Amino acid sequence: MKKTFESIDAVSQALKKQKYICDRKLATVIYLAFQMEKPLLLEGEAGVGKTELAKVLSKALDRRLIRLQCYEGLDTHTAVYEWNYTKQILRIKMAEAHQECLDNFKSIFDEEYLIQRPLLEAIRSEAHGKHVSLLIDELDRADEEFEAFLLEVLSEYQITVPEIGTLKAKTKPLVVITSNRTRELHDAIKRRCLYHWISYPSLEKEYEIVTTKVPQIAEELAMKICSLMQQVRQMDFYKRPGVAETLDWVSALLLLNRNHLDAETLEETMGCLFKYQEDLERVKNEDLTVSWAEALRS
Amino acid sequence: MTNRGISSGSRNRPGDFVLNSLHFARQLKDKGLPVTLGRTLDALRGLMLIRLEDREETYSLFSTHYVSRPEELPVFDAVFEEFWSSKVRPATLEAKRQVQPETIPPLTLPGAMEPSADQTENGQQKISYSSQDIMRKKDFAAMIDAESQDVSQLIMALTRDLGLRLGRRWRTGAKGRQVDLRSSIRSSLRHGGELLVLRKKRRQPKKTRFVVMCDVSGSMDSYSRFLLQFMYGFQRHVPRVETFVFSTRLSRITPLLRMRKIDAAYALIEEKVFHWSGGTRIGSCLTEYNRRYGRRFSGPNTVFILLSDGWDQGETGLLEREMKELKRRVKRLMWLNPLLGMPGYRPIDRGMSTALPYVEDFLDCHNLDQLESFGRELQKA
Q: Which of A77, A288, B81, B250 stands the most exposed, by the fewest C-beta atoms within 10 Å?
């Protein structure tokens, strides 16, 4: 049974059930991507929930999530398919031992010897009527050549394995592409996708995220944490903390049984918010924990 | 944003809404957003999937089709706000304007790069060969406004070419460390499946990254415009490029130069970079680079390119220290100095002579020819 989204509101509700808070704008874009069968391209600072969204979407739609993590040097052998050479050699040797004819070697280029990688897996699932969602994570890390190849896959939804033939998806998988913008993606890719920039959440939204994800937290503390996060993100840090960092921090405070944010607590837990030595040094040198604690008290 | 309806009558008169959408797309295009017919058609198709009376849904529909980088969002927001609000209440348009004096920044070039009259229809300008030759040798500082348009295009062509050459994949040699099982098996089939030849493959060497840092202090005024154009083209056509401008302070402009249209990029830079045409403190700017960005952008694959005339007002000790640090952390340090084209120029002023021992390539960049030979040098690096 194919689960679908009936309306834009249904998207927000389904995601909320999975504890993902999304605003109407994002819900609209997701709905459009789903209905228009276009890939969704999500960009935003690290830790704002891009990858999380893909995971949650596939859960809400009851689809298997196939994930392709991109990195520099990613090639088609790791993204699409590879032949199982060891198995092929063994097969040849076996045939030799039994003096068996291998029928022009066609039999060792059979699907049995094919190692599926994420892209082929997604296309094949859809070709066999099983709906999946495909997450192409951090595409900006892959090389431009791979981007060009991906463009081809995303326009035809088919993959050709020379020895076997062409596989075409009957239905299009739900595709989510994320990028951290370490480099700009090519315009051609962007044209094919629906674009959405996920910014840092507003105070209200972040509060909702924190209280939904960590319901044990006291409301007042959650509010204080979120307002401090807003303030911190206004400042010029090397790497500003995202929502992921907020949630880490909240969990840490709960574990330590701290229910108010004094300078000492802040100082002890700053490692949850800042991951770079430069930022931590700055917090220390400028006594930011003291001034933040003071601001929170008033 | 409120959930106020965009147009009360729009549901009954979809034709108007479509027409308005086209006008809206046109305005976005005028403001420098990458509007294409394909995207507009897609957006129109999407109109059927949303509630037109819902402002946020309409906003999302258009922004997801017309915006493709965060820098474009403020431009989009301003046009969206103005266009769809004025369509609702034309009577109160004037009043609204007065309440909201916030205007959309005009995306024009700073300086005098106005498009000249003899442009052809598609915006491309025809340049005759003979004039191209002269242009290539002419000092940027001596260019008159009418010529700068031609030069911008030549610069773009030059960087595009450079991007193609630098992006070329490395050829896999016959020798290598790793066995290429794929092709070994393939070739073994010729010998009845006996692995006679082990094909090898060589790992593609780590790709080069570039950091370009351009001096925009007062003394560089007559060059910075062209060099900025060069940086724009360079970043656009060559992968893995980071760009900075500096004078007394340092600004990272990589995200700003990402705008699809150079005019829009210039407008953003004008808005965000305040230290234009100021003095020069190379040392302290390098300190800032090394401290804030060094970890991320400097590395054994980084080619660092400094564009500056070397007139430094800062402390030489600091400059020396930071040049040394920079040299230690990058693969190659190149310095392009437009003054090198001046007959009789010798790098003997304080700043330049301090920095020179740490520079591997000291090149000229005062005209197109020199920029091109810099490109060739880069390929070797």
A: A77
> Are A143 and B207 an interchain contact pair (Cβ–Cβ within 8 Å)?
yes
Name the domain boundary from A198, A220, A239. Answer: A198
Test A28 with B167 for CB contact under 8 angstroms. no
Q: In terms of domains, do A210 and A285 share one?
A: yes
Shared domain check, A232 and A149: no
Measured between CA atoms, how close is B71 to chain A, in angstroms? 10
CB-based burial, A209-228: b 16+ in 10 Å, e otherwise: bbbebeeebeeebbbbbbeb
Predicted confidence (pLDDT) per residue in A146-196, tens digit? 888 898 898 889 888 888 888 899 899 999 999 988 777 888 899 899 999
- Ranges of each domain in chain B: 14-99, 171-204, 209-380
CATH number of the domain that A189 lies in?
3.40.50.300
ipTM of this complex: 0.86
pLDDT of amino acid B179? 67
Which among B35, B41, B36, B83 is positioned nearest to B59, based on CA atoms?
B83
Mean pLDDT for B149-177 is: 65
Segment B222-236 shows an average pLDDT of 86
Structural domain ending residue among the three candidates A198, A233, A264: A198
**Average pLDDT value for chain B:** 76
Q: Do A24 and B60 touch (CB under 8 A)?
A: yes
Tell me the three-class secondary structure of B105-148, residue by residue.
CCCCCCCCCCCCCCCCCCCCCCCCHHHHHHHHHCCHHHCCHHHH
For chain B, report the end-to-end CA distance as a whole number of angstroms. Answer: 52
By CA distance, what is A23's nearest residue in B? B56
Would you state the CATH architecture of domain B209-380?
3-Layer(aba) Sandwich (3.40)
Same domain, A253 and A124: no
Residues A158 and A29 in one domain: yes
Confidence of residue B206 (pLDDT cuts 50, 70, 90): low
